[in-house]
Structures are given as structure tokens and as C-alpha cells.
Amino acid sequence: MPDRTSAPAIKSIEQVSIPEAVSVNLDNGIPLHFINAGTQPVMRLEVIFKAGKWFEHEPGHSYFAGKMLVEGTEQHSASEIATFFDELGAFVEISCGYDRVTLSIHLLQKHLDTILPILREMIYNPAFKLSEFTSLKERKRQQLAVDLQKNNFLASRSFTKAIFGGNHPYGRSLTLQNIDETPLDKVSEFFQDYIRGNFEIILSGMVNDKHVQSINDALGSNIRSSAALSDEISGTYNASEQHIDKKDSLQSAIRLGMPFIGRQHPEFIETLVVNEILGGYFGSRLMRNIREEKGYTYGIRSVMGILDHASFWTVSTEVKAEFRDRTITEIKKEIGQLQSELVPDSELTTVKNYILGTFVSSLDTPFALADKFKSIHFSGLNYHYYQDFFHRVGNITSERVLELSRKYLCVENMSLVTVG
Amino acid sequence: MHLFFIFVHSMIDFQQIILKNGLQVLVHEDQTSPIAVVNILYNVGSRDENEEKTGFAHLFEHLMFGGSVNIPNYDTPLQKVGGENNAFTTPDVTNYYLTVPSANLETAFWLESDRMLGLSFDPEVLEVQRSVVIEEFKQRYLNQPYGDVWLKLRPLAYSLHPYKWPTIGKDISHIERATMEDVMEFFHQFYHPANAVMVVAGDVTVKQVQSLCNKWFSEIPSGPVNHRNLKPEPAQLASRKLEVTADVPVNAFYQVYHMPKRFERNYYRADLLSDILGRGKSSRLYQQLVKGKRLFSAISAHVTGSLDPGLLVIQGKLGEGVSCEQGHQAVAEEIDRILEHGITDRELQKVKNQAESSLAFSEVTLLNRSVNLAMAAVAGDPHYVNLEPKLINEVSLEGVMEQAATTLRKENSSTLYYKKRSA
User: Fold this and answer.
1) Which residue of A has its CA nearest to B350?
2) Are residues A317 and A363 in the same domain?
3) What is the pLDDT of residues A118-146, one digit of tens each?
4) Is A229 part of any domain?
5) Are A212 and A251 within one domain?
6) Which regions of A210-363 does DSSP assign to beta strands (E)?
7) Which of chain A's residues have a Cβ under 8 Å away from the Cβ of B320?
8) Element housing A299 (H / E)
């Protein structure tokens, strides 16, 4: 029988070299970043427009302008486009975020050349047909009506509003009324101002020079437009508390958090370790306390939301309604403990190795490598960030964790939202 | 090697080791990154539960993280070597998986073998996980609009087969009443080497895995092989219908049809049929009912893909002011259109291309390849994993039509109207 009572020797986690994206410019100056990796004959083509919520004047303009890209072009109807991609087994998705609108296509490598001409139509000449727009609005309206019944959804909305303010583009959220009142001309105007010709491309998977050439041939000729600029908004933040009562809720959704430093900040990487200890992974203090010891919840976690113009930090959970207040007290207690007692060595070692080990595992696919590139690229950083990441995570001390918890996790500065 | 690759699908290479205690081990080498996956699938799902004690397979998944004979806590030692893990339970199986830097592979063997050997059976762990599962039940099934759909649909579609209750359980009181005795009995019956498949994949070698298996798993005593003797679901002879009313924003429509089990030839016919009906925006139901008649705001079709005969599912949200009856009528017309006028070669080629692409994408991550291998093994033969492309590609237009005539019969259907409570 092997000795089962003690763990096998631990090998330290070696820093790995990350396959890097290669950046080139198409003939018209549009940046193309590509990553050649993976063993399956697949690729992901992402067209990323700098046209997220941040740029809108009314909620919904960015969302609808983005979604209309697949709803028909001057040459092809929405149905024809859907059939075209389905027949190639390609998956098209448009995600509309705070800072960017991303059109991504998952495809078999062999179909890239076939897809490009249609993609070109979609991003340069979408039709903005009223019938498609009306139908899109109806679908969005129904989806939103369903989401508005979810405590979690309501809590997230109210929380971003509490952090950024109701007049800030990050803090505003789409209402049913907004949907009804959004006119098509404003949406196509948003497309002209922010989306058309204002993008970067990221190609990941089994990529070769021929693919890069094909993209240049298809998308390298139109003039690159310079997008309209928007002003930086400096709102003032004040901590607040809000409870939204929902009768008959079995569970309450909780959000507790505040504005936070962004990825470019020299202490950001170390705060990742602090966050991890508190609520970043399955073995975190919050998870152990609220789920594994008390059984109040199925899950609780803390995360950073990194945006281009402002970032935030939040603890989120859904708990048995009767334990709502007790859970909030426990969250604050755990934060207090991080600020008053040194993290034991063994816990810190676990967290460091966990962060570094899962980082290495997360480099498994070409798409994950592209995501790693996006994280640094859109924060204005380069691959040095990941070397720095390994170094800083590997070397952080318990004293430093204490210091950073005091500096960044100030409970008086946190806003609280509860729903249900 | 067989010579049938019209698809771009590449083989998942693997070697098989069977230990004396019956543990089936599959090794899939891939040295691309310095990581390893250990996936252990136990051949037990909610279909193996006693009808009076449902939700056990899933509760058990939680208990497996509550400490084993020699190791008080499963997660921390794994996290300490840079690993992460999770698990899932289905009506068919319970699957545990972890990813670890390959240099620390042995820690995974130490942890997994100890919990196969035995659990701590700590009463406190049972109490806490019982509460966690009850919260999970609320979060996923009760506190969401439409969250309880499968609690209603399963017993409607299945009258005898244990697929009639969902993995979370038929009634949460079963979990509330679970005793430590029940837990121990369940463990001894299902958690042992002869009832498991282990896949070790990634930056590993067969020789290394062989030696680690000998060291950590070979001495674990075996138990009874799970020879199921489940009541087969009798052929459905008349259509069934259920209506519920709840505080939901819009009416929803669900319809299910009995169909063949996974890895069987006719399964792929039914699978492609469901794709023609409702996969993606170019599918018939979407084009006709969302885009054309605008009766639905969303509609799709899929198959459950279970190891015993499963279901072809059609589900949709009705447009504002459209009744479930109207939606039902329109879906029935689309089904009749298929039965009367057939499908086109172009449609069949389209869904085959979609399937080809899905397979390629499902094998991008090492973890998915491992899970796919384990599922094929538990279904009877790990080689199934490489046979699926052939089975899909062989489906003919006539085959789909034959299947449509068998599956899409009214008598074979169960329909659920999920109605919005009127204000």
C-alpha cells in the first residue's frame, strides 16, 4: 500500500512561454492580430469594433447597431446570411459590451475564403431594414422581460448604476421603454459614426500566411475611418445601499463592491491575489464560510470588472432569503479578517500555486491565447504583463496581502445592493 | 485504422489499460502544453436511483468533495499543486474531472484513488451539502422563470423509466430526508473500480500512467458491476398534454418526442432531423415561425442524447399576445410539412456540415476530448468516440424521412403549455 496519509511532493509551477499574437496592418491600416496554435483544423475570426455602450448617447444604440450586422446586407437578406453560415457549419455571434462590439465567427479553417466576401458586406453594407429591426426589437424585448424577473439580473443592473451613476454610459441600462422608443435612424447613425471601418481583427487557430493574405484581399481595401471620439466622464462616486423588494423570493441576490483600480495600475496583479484569497476560487474564504460551512448558498465569489474607462470590484451571491443579512455580515467579517491578520503561509502558497497553475492550464486552446492577447492589448499593455504576473504572484508575501487589503478593500467605500 | 474520413475529424488516439480490480483506464497523450487531465466517470446517474430516494447521484457528487479516508479535504491539496476540478451529474453518469500542471500528476492520483477507496462519511459534511443542494435546487429550478420546466416535462414524457425525474431529484424532500446510511449504501454499490472509467490525458505517457495506476489504484477492492435492469419505457400510444400557469413574462411552448439512444445508428438520423427542424437561424422552425409568421420570439430543437432512449425536444417562447394553442398549431403544421413533402439534400448537407464543425470544436480542449472518451467507454466502447463522424456522415435523406415518420408522430409526443398568468 502506498502512503496515503501524506501528499506526493509538490513540484513548483514553471513559468511557461505564451505563444504570442503577431500583429500586422492590412493595406488600409486596419490592424490584424493572429495566433497560430492548436491541433484541430478550426479557427475563430473576431472583428472588434470600438463601439460599445461607452459610446452611446441613449441606451440600446450600440446593442442594436451591433446586432443588425447579421440582419441583412444590401445584397443579402438576413435569412440568406443565416443559411450561408449554417451551411458551412460556421457559428456567428455578436456580443455587445461596455467598450466594444465583437462579431466573432467560429469556422473550419477550410471555409475562411468562402466567408470573407459576406463578412465584408456585413460590416460595410448592412441594410438596416425596418422589418428586421422591428423583429429584432421584439425578440430583445421578450428576452429582457424574462431577465427582469431574475433577482440576479436586477442586482447586477442596480449595482453598476450604484458604481457609475445613472447618467454614465456604463451605469445606464436598457429598459423596455428604451427598446420601444429606439428609432432605426439613430441605430444606423451609430453604425456610421462608430462601427463602419473602425475595427481590429483577431484570427486564432491553425492560421497560416495564406489566411492573412486572404483577409488583406477581402478587408484591406476600404478606407479606414476614424471614429468619433467621446469625452472622458469623471463622475463622483458615493457609497450607497439599496434594497429591491421582491415578494415570494426564495433567494436574495447580493452585490457588494466599489470602483477599483484597472489592469495598468502597478498594484493590480497583486490585488488579484488578495481577491483570490477572499472570493476568487472554489477554496476561497467566502466560499468556505458561506457555502461549505454554513450552506447558505450554492455559490459566492468576488471578481474584478475591468473596463477601458473605469473598473470595479464586487462580491456576488444568491442566498437563502432568511440569511441575507447574516451573509452580508459574514462577508464584511471576512474582509475585516484579511485586513487584520496575516494570511497563513500554507493558504498563501495554495492560492499562488492555484493562480499560476490554472493560468498555465488556461493556455490550452488557440482561442484562450487570443483572449489573453485581448486582455493586454485593450488595456494598452504588452506580453511583459504576463511575465510580471508570474513574478508578482510568485513573490507576494502575507504582509503585502494585509497591506493591500487595507488599502483597496475599504468597507465604508462599498455599495450594497440586495434583491429579494 | 479505418478509411472513411470524409469529415476533417481527426482521431482521438488512446491506449487502454484494465486493472485487475476492473478499473478501465484510457490514456490519451498530447504533449502540446505542460498540463494533464484526469477524468473519472462513475457509471451511475439519476436513472440508478430508487424512486423514493431521488437526487442521490447528484447529492453524492457534492459529498465526494467532503473528504476521503485519508485526506480530510479534497480541494486544497489539488489547488496547492496548481490544479482545479469540477464534476457533473446527468441521468446517466457522474463525472469528475481535474486539470493539473503535468509535473504534479501524482497528486491527482493520490486524491482520486483515496476517494475511490472510501469517503470520510462525516455527518457535518452531509448536513452542509444537503443545504447547498437545496439552495442549488432553488437557484436553478425554482427561483428562475421557467426553471421548473423539466420537473414537469420528464414525468409527462416518461411513465416508467427513471428518466422521469431530473438529476436534482423528483422532490426536494428526498434530499432533506437522506440519511448517512443511504449515503454509505450508495457509495458501496456504485463507487468502486469496476464501475468507473478513468481517462488520463495530456502531457503524460502510457508507461507513467501504468505505473501510477499500479501504485495508487490497483489495491482498491472491487465491487459489483452495475448491471442495470431498468424498466424500459413502453411505447407511447397516445399524445399527452399538460398546462401550467405561472408568473412568467410570456407564454412558452415545449414538445418532446421519444427517440433512440445515443451511439445507435438511428440516433444520428433523429439528431440531424432535430437540427433541420430547429438548429440555428436558418432552421425550418426559426425561419417559418420567428421570421416568417412571427408567432415565436425564439424557437429551437435539440436532442437529449442520453444513453437510454431519449427525447427530441422542441421549445419556444411565444410572441406577445400569441397563445400556446396558436404556437402549437404552427409547429404541428411545420412537422406535417416535413412528413408530407420531405426535406432537401441541401438541408441534410447543411446539418451534416454543422455536425462536422461541432465535433471539431468539441475536440479543441483536452478536457472535452477526455470527457468524450469516457462517455464513449461507458456507453460500451471507447472507439465510439471516433465512429460518430462516420455514423453521422452515413445518414441518408431516406433515413431521416424514415426516422421522421417514426419519431414525429402525434401519439409519440408530450406537449407542455407554460402559460403566463393573466394580470
Assistant:
1) A87
2) yes
3) 999 999 999 999 999 999 999 899 899 98
4) no
5) no
6) 241-244, 251-260, 297-306, 311-320
7) 138, 141-142
8) strand A297-306
